[in-house]
Amino acid sequence: MMEAKKAAAEANASLFIASAGLGLVEASDVIPSYDLTVAKGLPSSIMSKLPHGTTEAGWWDEIATKDAAVRFETRLSR
Question: In whole angstroms, what is the distance from residue 42 CA to residue 16 CA?
Fold first, then answer.
């Protein structure tokens, strides 16, 4: 994470993180603590906590709402 922050600072760019529980968040956003991962096969995998038959694409569609996309695009245009 330190290397990503350094690269973003050197490029004068925003740093975004794909969060398993919250979708796309800016690195400076204050978010609640939680134990989720997108890695398959782990007890904390988001996929193991969703209804049977949920796909990775379906999960991402649910958390990557239009509002989040608009927020992302707005921050990119700064």
Answer: 24
